[in-house]
Amino acid sequence: MPLKIASWNIEYADKLLKDTTPSGRDRQVRVRQTIKDIKPDILCVVEGPRGEQGAVDFGTNVLGGDYEPVLLQGPGEAIGYRDRDYANNMAGIQWIWFYVKPALKDRCVLQAPSVWQEMNGYDSWPVYYWGKPDEKIQHKHYRHPQVLKYRFDNGDQLELIGVHLKSGFMEGGVHIEKDADGNLIGPNLDEALSNRIKLATEARDVRTYISKRFAEESIPPPIIVVGDMNDGEGQDYFEKNYLYFSVVSNLEGDVVDSEQFFNHALFDFTPSDRWSIKFADEVLGLTADQNPLLLVHILMSQPVCNGSCPVTAKAHCGIVEHKAYNDNNPSGKKPTSDHRPVSVVLK
Question: Of these four, 4, 25, 233, 335, which has the most CB atoms within 10 Å of its CB?
Fold first, then answer.
C-alpha cells in the first residue's frame, strides 16, 4: 500500500489556532483544505502549535479531526495526559508535530528526545566561532528533532526525523553594511556567520544521531529526514565566501560511506518548480520573485530507495505541492503560509 509523507511549515500555526477573526477562520479552512488536497498519510507540521494541548486542539479545530497528532506516552500514562511538554524538548511557539490519519495512529510511536540525547551522549555541544577557543559557546537545538517510528504490517519500522533547524536570519531585521569593494562588513556579517555555524552544528548533530542508528542495526535502517532545514538572507553567499559547506550536504552524508548516504526526494522534480518559499534578499539584492528557495527537504536513506524496505522511493516520487497551495490561496486572501508543502509517495 502506498505511503504518502508530507512536510509543511504552516507559518505560526500557534497564532493561527488562536485567531478567531474572520480572516483567521478563513485561513484555517484553507489550511485544512490544502492538506485534504495533498492527502498525506503522515504530515510533519513545522512551526506547529506550542505544547501537547495546542497540538490536539489544532488537529480538532483546524484539521477537523482528519489527522491526529502523535504524542509521547510513557508507561501507565493515560491518553489525554497533557503535562509532558518539557519532554518534547522544544522552546518558543514553533513546535514540530507529526499528524497522521486516525486509522494509522496505532502504527506510530513518538520517540522521546531523551533517547536521542542518550545515543549522542550529550544534549548540547560546544561551538568554536572562527576556530578560536575564546569564541566558544554552548549550543543546543531550540526545536529538538522529533522522531516518529511507523510500523508496517510485517513488523518492519520506518523512522521519520522531523526537523526545524535554526534560522539563518539576522535578529531584528537585516542591517546591511558594505565596504567600498562591496564586501559585507560589521555586526551583520558576524551575526550571519554565527547563525550559520549554529545551524550547521545542528545538522551535524542530526547526522551524528543517524550514524548511531546505523551502528545499532546489523541491516541499514530505513530513515527519512523531513522538515525545514532553513537558511536566511544571502543563501549560499556566506557558504561560498566564508564557510565552505552547506547544511543539506551535512545531512545527506558522505557518498564514500554510501550505505549511510541519503538521497533527496526532489532530485528529479521539475527544476523550475523546485522551491518552497520566495523572499526578498537584501544581501544579494534580489526581489522575492527573483529568489526562489528550497528550504523544506525530504532526505531518504538507501533502504527507502533500493527496495529493501516495504515501501520504495521510485522515480519522480517527490514534489513541491504548488497546485494544492495555489488552489487554496486566491488573490486578496491572507496566505495560508509563506512556505509551500513538500511531499513524497513511497510504493
Answer: 233
Cell readout for 34 is 490544502
Euclidean distance between the first and final Cα of the chain, in Å? 6
Coil, helix or strand at residue 277: strand
Q: Report yes or no: 234 and 192 within 8 Å, Cβ to Cβ.
A: yes
Q: Which residue has the higher pLDDT, 172 or 104?
A: 104
User: Would the pLDDT of 9 be above 90?
Assistant: yes
Look at the block and give the residue holding cell 494544492. 324
Neighbour order of strands in the sheet with 95-100: 68-69, 95-100, 42-48, 3-9, 342-346, 318-320
Could you give all domains of the chain from N- to C-terminal order, each with its CATH number? 3-346 (3.60.10.10)
* Residue 86, C-beta contacts closer than 8 angstroms, at least 6 positions apart: none
pLDDT category, 213, cuts 50, 70, 90? very high
Report the predicted TM-score, pTM, of the whole model to 2 decimal places. 0.92
Residue 296 burial (C-beta neighbours within 10 Å; 0-12, 13-18, 19+): buried
pLDDT tens profile 264-319? 999 999 999 999 999 877 777 788 898 888 999 999 999 999 999 999 999 999 99
**Residues whose CB falls within 8 Å of the CB of residue 190, separated by 6 or more in sequence, listed in order:** none
Q: Predicted confidence band at 184 (pLDDT cuts at 50, 70, 90)? A: confident
Residue 75 exposed, middle or buried by CB count within 10 Å (0-12, 13-18, 19+): exposed
Q: Where do we find the cell 497528532?
A: 69
Q: Is 15 helix (H, G, I), strand (E, B) or coil?
A: helix
**Could you tell me how many residues make up the chain?**
347
